[in-house]
Amino acid sequence: MADGRVAKINPGEPPSGSENTTATASWAAVPKTFRDPNGSLPPPWDGIFGPLRQGTIDDLMIVGQCGQSIDARIATPSGHSHYINSEDGLAHLHRLRALVDAVMIGVGTAVADDPQLTVRRVAGPNPARVIIDPNSRLPPTARALAADGARRLVITRAGARTTLPTEIEVLPIAADNGLLPPAAIVAALAARGLRRILVEGGADTVSRFLAAGCLDRLHILVAPIILGAGRSVVGAD
Q1: Which fold has domain 7-18+45-227?
Q2: How many CB atoms lie under 10 A from the CB of residue 165?
């Protein structure tokens, strides 16, 4: 499933997040070409996203993503991360979303940030949205559950009760010491046709998938700042 390769992406370097540049102007056709096994990605996208087109171990491609400061912090001690998520970094994240079958986050991120998990900053289709919610904490009003045509899936602990709308796909998975095994999550999504998956956050979720050997690639976007203290890029501290 995973070969554990890491791509360090500096959001301060070309291609720029501005859609007015020549590089980004060539992006519009990339999502369709990316999914065509005979298509050839134009530069500079082939070097960045070409490795995500096909798995090296199996036909799955599980990609982790995180943004960090130079000293490997994803947020200040108070939890603020807007100093790190630059315009270029956000554009890169949205490009990743446009290329995968599904984007996945943990319920902690869903509750704290209430993200939309859509593609808005670049051209491309919205992926399916997946929330890992073992104990049914996700409110039905979460923006990730908005009915906009994209699939919405919630992964819960087997036996947990949920009050989510009936159109939400609920995937119960047996827990292991109170946690849902990453390999079981990937298998459940793959069985439903979602084979290229972006694990977007938060740090604990990315860490668990990394530790379980379930990431084929890890994209790390490094912002040119030093925070000195705060949340680490992977794992809790």
Answers
A1: Dihydrofolate Reductase, subunit A (3.40.430)
A2: 10
Report the pLDDT value the prediction gives residue 53, as an integer from 0 to 100. Answer: 94
Let me know: does 190 contact 164? Beta carbons within 8 Å: no
The DSSP-derived string for 150-173 is S-EEEEEETT------TTSEEEEE
- Tell me how far CA of residue 97 lies from CA of 129, 139, 150, 175, 210, in angstroms: 10, 23, 12, 28, 19
Q: Whole-angstrom Cα distance, residue 49 to residue 149?
A: 25
Helix (H, G, I), strand (E, B) or coil at 13: coil
The tens digit of pLDDT for each residue in 139-192 reads: 999 999 999 999 999 999 999 988 898 999 999 999 998 899 999 999 999 999
Site of tokens 């050997």 = 213
Confidence of residue 73 (pLDDT cuts 50, 70, 90): confident
